[in-house]
User: Fold this.
Amino acid sequence: MMKGSFPLGEFQGRKTPFYFYDIPLLERTLDAVRSAVRDRPLWQVHYAVKANANPGILRRIAAAGLGADCVSGGEIRMALEAGFAPESIVYAGVGKSDWEIELALEAGIARFNVESTAELQVIEEIAARMGRVAPVCLRVNPDIGAHTHAHITTGLAENKFGIFHEMLPEAVRMALACPHVRFCGLHFHIGSQVLDMADFVALCNRINDLTARFERLDLPVGDLNVGGGLGINYEHPNHLPIADFAAYFAVFKRHLHLRAGQALHFELGRSLVGPCGSLICRVLYVKQGATRQFAVVDASMTELIRPALYHAYHRIENLSSDLPERLYDVVGPVCESSDVFAKGVSLDECRRGDLLAIRSAGAYGESMASCYNGRPLPGSFLYGETGD
Assistant:
């Protein structure tokens, strides 16, 4: 089995499980993003903080000049502490509480991505009380189904996100009538782990139709925010460690009809940080069952919930063994039948104490960790720069 390159000597004495982050790979990924949009000065990429809020990761992304996409007041605080400029922060979420709206107004963020007219009214009231003007984009539910897991689609009419596109003109008129709201544009997001570029083409077509409709209604469109959603290759992290940013951005260059001076915003998360992270764990026991062999590891769904939550696939590698491969169910110690990382996976023969790497876990791994069963949160190891 081809394996990734890990500094095994530096793992000695480290308590498992922990998250390993390949910082040189993260830097190459950020370089690829910047290169893909270098010829578009009005395009800004915001990092979706929910994917991974490790302070060291956030600091490096902020230093690379990206903005931040936040979905809570806590994420706004973390972004500011990491060095993201307030004017680069956009804030989405269907349930913004009053204190979160107040925090965002105090900080002077760039945009509220507003998900309903009810929310718009509350933002107007809070901004009036604070003597502020809130910059808002209206999040559109475009009724587009992305080819991804049902739990991570966000652009269908049945989803909770955004304002249904047929109801949008009235919402824009309401925003324009609010004295303490500044209408800035439209926001879209169709889902996550999208690999079929045709889904993004469909989004461009929907936006083009809406733009033409708005022009006929003599309504402003403002800036556009197309969200994120670009997926990564979970099957082959060693061969394809960087997402296809060139193809992704080329879709919008070719298919989205921007007007002169119109800014375009993106909100990428998984594709930036997913490949650089691995969950490192240790084999506790090799257990022979009636029909299956189990590798019981010291990591669990509390460190990486995606397989239990989405039946998500992560490549697993035995870093300690070069023995012939055998089939294992890789399972954790938590008292839940769903605490399973993979079934029937081929690994170099496992023995007690072997180190395993669960790959492509840099997104929605550490950020979704919990203390269920009284387990401590995992540590992290940022590898590749002096001082890490």
User: Anything to note?
Assistant: Confidence is low (pLDDT under 50) at residues 146-157. DSSP finds ten helices and 17 strands in the chain. The radius of gyration is 22 Å.
